[in-house]
Amino acid sequence: MAAPRSFTWTRRVFLTLLTGFVLLPVYVMVSSSLKPLEDVSSQFHWLPSNLTVRPYIDIWSTVPLAKYFVNSLIVAGAATVCSVVIAVFAAYAVSRYEFRGKRVFSVTVLSTQMFPGILFLLPLFLIYVNIGNATGIALFGSRGGLILTYLTFSLPFSIWMLIGYFDSVPRDLDEAALVDGCGPLRALFKVVVPAAIPGIVAVAVYAFMTAWGEVLFASVMTNDATRTLAVGLQGYSTQNDVYWNQIMAASLVVSVPVVAGFLLLQRYLVAGLTAGAVK
Fold first, then answer.
1. Among 4, 46, 86, 101, which residue carries the largest CB count within 10 Å?
2. In the prediction, which pLDDT does 277 show?
3. Within a domain: residue 43?
4. To the nearest whole percent, how much of the chain has pLDDT over 70?
5. Contact at 8 Å (CB) between 226 and 216?
6. Neighbour-count burial of 275, counting CB atoms closer than 10 A to its CB (0-12 exposed, 13-18 middle, 19+ buried)
7. Phi and psi dihedrals of 86, rounded to 5?
8. Taking the model in full, what pTM does it have?
9. Looking only at Cα atoms, what is the longest distance across the chain?
């Protein structure tokens, strides 16, 4: 059946309004990033009169943005790799094997998502400081400590998500690989992992985006040498002035890796989020 004409026009109007609502902040960011600071600080104009790319040049000298960019890449990349690797092994074990405490483990992993992250801020801070005082291992103020912190958020959800995805992969594939002489690990990497690529990509994107844009723990667990982008952007606000045009420019620059990665992996992400929902 063809859709009624009224429904078609209503859908078009709704989608147009929704698109405008989504793109309006992006346009304000882009236009503000191409204005001198005086124009941004004064009355807002939809069409900028004085276009300049100077804010995109100044963002690298006003604050050490390049250092923050490298820190974010290292922390988010390491947290993503560790989360995916650990989640693959844990989810495969829960999906394919029976062991004592399996149900308790699965429920515990899922229940960790019920608690707000701020509850773990003070305990993790005290743990890191005490470990540093007792062993000399500097977790507080280091990239390694921040990576461990992000794993506490991304790893439980990654495990839970991959369990459902591995359950949707037929067990016959594992059994056929075992019959052909593969061991459990080889069957995992040769058969199950290639079939689960969409789910693994979805987990990786989730873990990366969680670490890339996190502010609360990064503002407490880092120092001047290990500060990430999410916290470093606050450097454009000083006691004397706020460089709004540079803030907009820097926000657009730091969004490029996430947007580019999402566009490249979009088809895997959509498939991974929907797979495993129906068995």
1. 86
2. 41
3. no
4. 94
5. no
6. middle
7. -65, -40
8. 0.82
9. 73
Tell whether 39 is covered by a domain.
no
Tally of structural domains, the chain: 1
Quick one: how many helices (H) and strands (E) in the chain? Answer: 15, 0
The answer on pLDDT for 84 being more than 90 is yes
To which residue do tokens 């829960």 refer?
94
> Which amino acid appears at position 27 of this protein?
Y
CATH number at residue 116: 1.10.3720.10
Q: Each residue of 62-81: pLDDT tens digit?
A: 889 999 999 999 999 999 99
Contacts of 230 (CB under 8 A, 6+ apart): 72, 212, 213, 214, 215, 218
In a domain, 164, yes or no: yes
Each residue of 129-143: pLDDT tens digit?
999 888 888 888 899
Give yes or no for a contact between 254 and 69, defined as CB atoms under 8 angstroms apart: yes
Once rounded to an integer, what is the mean pLDDT over residues 43-54?
A: 83
- Alpha-carbon distance of 232 to 254, in angstroms, equals 11
For residue 170, what are the domain limits?
Answer: 60-276
One DSSP character per residue, 100-137 reads TTHHHHHHHHHHGGGS-GGGGHHHHHHHHHHHHHHH--
Question: Tokens representing 32?
Answer: 């503000």
